[in-house]
Amino acid sequence: MIVSCTAALVMGVLSGCNASPPGSPQVRDGGSETVDLPPPPPLELTWEPCGVRGMAGNAGQCATVQVPLSWDDPTGERVPTSVKRFHSTEMIAGHLWILIGGPGLSGDWLDNALPIFEAIAPDFEVFMPSYRGTGSERLRCPDQETINGPGRTEIIGDEWGACAQTLEAQWGDRLALFSTDQTARDIGALIDATSEPGVPVYIFAVSYGTALALTYLHHFPEQPDGVILDSVLPLGTASFPLGFEDAHNRIARELMAECGRVEECSSRLGSDPWQSLVAASESLDAGHCPGLSADGIDRGRFRQMLGYLLERLDTRELIPALVHRLTRCDASDVAAIEWLSGIIPTLDDPGFFPPEARNDSVVLRTQLILSEFSTDPVPSQSAYEQALSGLHVAPDFGGEIANAASVWPSSGRQPSALTGCPATQVPLMVLSGGLDPQTPPWIADDFASCLQAPHQQLVRVPRACHDVLSSSPLASGGLTCGMRLTRDFLEDPTGSLDATCASRAAPIDFRNEPSISMALLGTADMW
């Protein structure tokens, strides 16, 4: 299965003796207004042994707790949220909270990240929350999310209408409370409930998790001892769906420029590999390679395939090879492209549905994207398809968002009141991948103006993709650049950060990797 790099990591926060309680004053609208909230009741967590994927026995501890549906009405209706914690040493140097991205992913995915954090932060206790709206009581439309339905466990096409009616009947305007703002206040309350005197708390956040972390910092600007934002998504970034698709096209052009600087690649695609990609893509409109069209692989499908590959460190190097194969178009090339097309399903395919995804919420994902990260208005399906036709590399993720937008309960779509930079003085490190199509580097460059306090800085790693922590290998091997930077920050967030590893990133050599090629193309030679 090809899983998008979009899935993210976390946020950890320190709650020391000077930590602000969850009901402390909030700063809204980038610092323009202070609002006093009623103090919420403290959370009480009961920990039970639970399993950690890949480890024997019950290596972790889990707790589920009821939190206010609205923190502005702390004694009213409640919804569940849960957290898992893990530590492998008796002496704990700090608490590290990991906030996953998505949106709509459950914390179950974070088990996969534990080996990384054991390697770079072995003395930390790691906390992995599952947000409101995910988990066993996740937001869902059960009649539409069925294995035997047209979208399997996804929701597609006309199914959105019935789903919207279900949500309207069940939640009404309370659907808007499944928001980044309310979830950030959940996190603050959880940290407050688990903090220990003298034990620092740190946040590591990736992708959507960084938007959650920034919202958290608006509410709790003094609670953490340090924050790491990997693949940052600033508050107020409302560019979905077309901006998301266009960013893939722009980053693909940068990747093909890298191809032009490598003999292994340029010898096959010429001096301008991007133009070779454009020509190959457009040739499908003219009837080139009819064997592919017979299998339903037109320009749109080819564009989508390239968009999927671009998001992963271990698959993006296949893009020039696919362009080369499409241009040549012999029988083996057709077979390889058809093979790839057949194994890039959506996660709803039961044959590819990973256990980590069982508690994800497609409804929460849609709710958050439509409310907080989409343009207003969201383009119609026809307008979206028209704009997409001008691109050559794009995952076509926004089509179903456009479908959902036309019927989504209007009372549930309330954009966040929090925008701009949180007024925090805590140490903060932002990691940005130069070839990240989901949260592209120009977004991080704009956000850099928020980094005004001491020990707040942006580190750009030129060839990294989404999730710099794991997608920034060095030419010398060993820990990635992102792992080294995270380790050093956690050891001393106010120290002088050595970011020179960003200039020692491993090159993209576009050489054949037989195992990847065999898995994705059905042949040992990608070229």
Q: Distance between the terminal alpha carbons, to the nearest Å?
A: 21 Å
Q: Main beta sheet: strand number and arrangement?
A: 9 strands, mixed
Helix content: 25-40%
The averaged pLDDT comes out at 88
Oligomer: single chain
**SS field, number of helical segments:** 17
Low-confidence stretches: 1-34, 346-353
Q: Which strand order does the major sheet show?
A: 3-4-5-7-6-8-9-10-11
Radius of gyration: 23 Å
Kindly state the number of beta strands: 11
**Structural shape:** globular
Structural class: alpha/beta
Give the percentage of residues in beta strands.
5-15%
Q: What letter string, H or E per element, gives the SSE order?
A: EEEEEEHEHHEHEHHHHHHHHHHEHEHH
Structure description:
This protein is of the alpha/beta class. Helices cover 33% and strands 12% of the residues. It has helices spanning 114-120, 159-171, 180-194, 208-219, 242-260, 263-269, 273-283, 290-293, 299-310, 318-328, 331-342, 362-373, 381-388, 399-405, 441-447, 481-491, 514-521; strands at 26-28, 33-35, 48-50, 60-68, 78-86, 94-99, 124-130, 201-206, 226-230, 428-433, 456-461. The strands form two sheets. It has a nine-stranded mixed sheet, with helices on both faces. It has a two-stranded antiparallel sheet with strand order 1-2. Helix 1 links the parallel strand 6 (94-99) and strand 7 (124-130). Helix 7 (273-283) crosses helix 10.
Structure, briefly:
Helices cover 33% and strands 12% of the residues.
